[in-house]
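Q: My labmate handed me this sequence with no annotations at all. I'd like to see what the chain might look like in three dimensions before we decide whether it's worth expressing. Could you predict it?
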Amino acid sequence: MAGRLLLVCRLLVRDLRRRPTEIILLLLAISAATGTLTLGLALSGVADRPYQQTRATTAGPDVVAEPVGGGPESLATLTPLATEAGVTAHSGPFPLAFLRLTSRGRTVNAVVEGRDQAPAALDQPAVTSGTWVRPGGVVVERTFAEALGVRLGDPVSIGGHALRVVGTAVTAARPAYPRVDWHEPGSILSDSGGLVWVDRGQIGAVAGTQPLSYTLNLRFADPRASTTFRHQIRDGIAMTSWTAIAETDGEVVAKARKAMLVGSWLLTALAVASVAGIVAARVIGQRRRLGLLKAVGAGPAMVAVVHLVEYLVIGLAAAGIGLAVGWFAAPALTSPGAGLVGSVGAHPPALTTVLVATALALVIAVAAALGPVIRAATTDTVHALADAAAPPRRRRWRVWLSRRLPTALMIGVRINARRPRRARLAMVNTLITTTTLAAVLMLEAQDKQVDLGGAQLSDPENTRTFQAAFIVAGVLCVLALINAVVNTWTAVLDARQPLAVARTLGATPGQAAMGLALAQLLPALPGVVVGIPAGIELYESISPPNILHPPGFWFLALGLGILLAISTLTTVPAMLAARRPVADTLRSVAA
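A: Here is what I predict for the chain of 591 residues:
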């Protein structure tokens, strides 16, 4: 047993040192999938942890109460809530006005809350820049300020009254922009808007003739009293639990998390195809060594172990790389948004994330390597030592058809017929790439802005989702590019002898090069044709109804662009291979 283990370790080290390029490609393919999955799992903590930090920093309430109506009678309905049984602390009632704010030529909805300059026992917004409210000044919720593009000292107009921005702040008592539940006085239908705070003594003048509403913050002795509901209306008072606010704030990254998780599974499928192609090429290249192992007494189990251990080690290393890259990149994407404080990326990966990412890397390695390894282990010793490719399965209709094809096309068809698995992997590569890019085009066609009563401002949720989709698409395109290069170069090396024979029978170097390029284009074509509708269907299945569809020429350009990229990637190595002298090729193969 010790001797076999030593042999496996020596062969492993030798393979890792002799083929560094292939090892790097394998690590890159598996790390891409595990890194994207790590990002998706990291986003799952954004919806909860930063809100809890914001709630602790700002002394966030358990329940926020707001009367449905307005005017002095609404204030009278709130007052008894502060002395109800089980209430241990409260702040307010604070006056509210649902007005229009004008800044930089844009007029938008704004929920204006009057506050005291002294700190409150509950819901004291955390100032992130500038100072707290003072006469003549306005404090803008940080996400709203970023969308408006306002800075400290900028003038704004609220209800026709000129004020100056003196600070920005965050709160846990109301959802961040644009979901602050702006509504017309007396209406329960909410609209998008932003939140600002002004001095309590000025809100009456700012509101003008509009009747004021009020908001009351409550804390209960029993934590369950605020978690048994999200929203409820009781005696004309709308009660909102902190859990509902946390869930609303978490929606900023909810779509991004879904995009990352869906992207990680697409990358997993592409990584399996990529690793399978590289493994198949490696197994073909190691055929002679496989025959030597069998000739000296190694059985099928030993041969399988020799190959599988190598890919398991690569899978473990790729899991570590993917976890590290995904987690260090997490702060750029997993920021909870300007409406909350705290971060996620600063924390170490959870044990669940480590286990899931490691399991995914090992599954990719084993799933991609198992087929080629089993075929290698069961290959006849004499056949392995001969290192000859299996002849294509001949069918009368295929022979009849190939005779009538142009020379270049016939060469491409016969190259794929010799290696049908490689052709299928090329089709899967193109299919997954096209599906992902078509889904990204669907996302790009959606409206990324939100209507705040006539003016359009950026929506943080849509912006974050597009960032996540762009990351997935970028990583996937790089991986697909590597796959195309590996498949082409493998085909070039494997088709040297058939191309040399074809040239001795009259094919020109140009026809041979075109045949190699067509061998990659032929399986890519159905991948593009099926991938575009698959990408549209994928986006529609994970998106809400009433989505927008881009113009048809976007998808036409996408399909032609992918085919053009494949043609470009395959033509250069094909021309180099086709220009090699026939005598040299046949002499090297015979040797």
